[in-house]
Amino acid sequence: MPFDSSLLEDRFTIVPRLDRPSTYKDHQYQGTATQWSSDLAKTTTLYVGNLSFYTTEEQLYEIFTKAGEIKRIIMGLSRNTKTPCGFCFVEYYTHESALECMKYVNGTKLDDRIIRTDLDPGFREGRQFGRGRSGGQVRDEYRQEYDEARGGWGHMRAKQEEERRRQQDDSYEAIATVPAGAELQINSRLGRGSPGRNGY
After folding, report:
1. 110 vs 23, 53, 105, CA distance in Å?
2. Which of 8, 76, 121, 130 could cross-link 87 (Cys pair, CB 3.0–4.6 Å)?
3. What residues contact residue 191 under an 8 Å CB cut-off, 6+ apart?
4. What is the dihedral of CA 182, 187, 188, 191, to 10 degrees?
């Protein structure tokens, strides 16, 4: 039986292969772990994450065509607003192009963000929509840092900030009467001077 050199490469390599998929498995995938691995071994589809909400399909075509001819790009959308929410699927014509993309495009910068690519078993209708409660991605539900390129605060933090502002507004008391002498100080700061005998 001929010797499979790839076994030796996998066992003794120092630098990890860049075209290997991550350990992530979509929890909505219907098949077994074996079927998942089998699908990834021949897939032509990539999941792309950590995109800016403002990255366009044209920009994605420009960078991902460097790895091979693209069949189509499916933009990830908010389930509620139907606007981009930071991910997409890229379908190539060949599995080899998908692997080339993993090697050379994964980890590069697009719109000042490090984009992440991963082999995907294949796009199905409905997967283009975010799965978070607010309609976007789950990661943006609980994100605590402010990220202008991904809509500002995470959904939960945005609600906290809105509540904090509401409480501040409720605790604010408008000044009903102007204290004696305060009007003269205000006028002097504004350069109006003191009112004359006739009020001018």
Report:
1. 24, 12, 10
2. 76
3. none
4. 170
Supply 104's token pair: 């050379």
For residue 94, which of 46, 43, 40 has the smallest C-alpha distance?
43
Of 90, 86, 64, 65, residue with least CA distance to 77: 86
pLDDT, one tens digit for every residue, the chain (200 residues): 554 545 444 554 555 677 788 877 888 888 899 999 999 999 999 999 999 999 999 999 999 999 999 999 999 999 999 999 999 999 999 999 999 999 999 999 999 999 999 999 999 999 999 877 777 777 777 777 887 878 777 666 666 667 777 777 777 665 556 666 656 666 666 666 555 555 55
Q: Which two tokens stand for residue 96?
A: 């080899």
Contact call for residues 141 and 132 (beta carbons, < 8 A): yes
> Could you tell me the two tokens for 163?
């509540």
